[in-house]
Amino acid sequence: MLVGTLVNTAAVVCGALIGMLLGNILPDHLRDTLMKGLGLCTLYIGITGLSGGENSLITIISIAVGAVIGELCDLDGRLNRFAGMMEQHLRKKNSGGPSLAEGFVTASLLFCVGAMAVVGALNDGLSGNHEMLFAKSVLDFISATVFASTLGIGVMLSAAAVFVYQGGIACLASLVAPALQQNAAVIPEMTVVGSVLIMGLSLNVMGVTKLKMMNYVPAIFLPVLLCRFL
Q1: Cα dihedral angle (161, 167, 172, 176), rounded to 10 degrees?
Q2: For residue 90, how many other CB atoms are within 10 A of its CB?
Q3: DSSP letters of 59-85?
Q4: Which of 32, 99, 167, 198 is the most exposed place for a label (fewest CB within 10 A)?
Q5: Pairwise CA distance, residues 16 & 11, whole Å
Q6: Report field, pTM of the whole predicted structure over 0.85
């Protein structure tokens, strides 16, 4: 069940180690090119996940209602305020450069907050499908290499956050799997909604949009209810 999470954790560790060895030798234009390439790969992953659903109405309602829930709860704002407070605190403690904790917080947010982490972990726990987490592992490996070249060992330590976060979701999903599998349409519809969010995430990575993707995350779980009525 945790194979995908373990591979993802190892990818972050390995990428961070390579990034620390590279140091600051990666030029800014190369980092920008790499990140936009990651965005294109993420877009491809999102598109390939759209084929499983059969009821587009479930996707539309899930996205709409999930966005309202996310906005009312201000999930994106809460996350940004938390990150901002952490960054201010860390800069005060080490004004000369990024600290170990700053690298840890920055990388943990990057690797854990996003539709791929949630959907991939759900697939891992519900059906034993590790494909999305394997793809995320490649993306995170490259990202960890780029970020660790400037933020240091804190990026490598964020692998612990990846393991706890994704592993926790996978374990919880495995517990509710029997209930979800009674309705065969639930998991494919959840995957489609998650794939739409992944496409939005890819546009952010490429700098095309600035969508508040955290506010859309509740949409992933709404097909569990909607499949009972639609």
Answers
A1: 150
A2: 20
A3: HHHHHHHHHHHHHHHTHHHHHHHHHHH
A4: 32
A5: 8
A6: no
Q: Domain range spanning residue 76?
A: 3-226
Q: Sign of dihedral through CA atoms 88, 93, 95, 97?
A: negative
| pLDDT greater than 60 at residue 149 | yes
Distance CA 44, CA 41 (A): 5
Its sign, for the CA torsion 162, 164, 170, 173, is negative
Domain count, the chain: 1
* Cβ proximity of 190 and 181 under 8 Å: no
Q: Transcribe 168-217 into DSSP letters.
A: HHHHHHHHHHHHHHTSTTHHHHHHHHHHHHHHHHHHHHTTS----GGGGG
**Of 144, 187, 142, which is closest to residue 162 (Cα–Cα)?**
144
Backbone angles phi, psi at 27, to 5 degrees: -70, 160
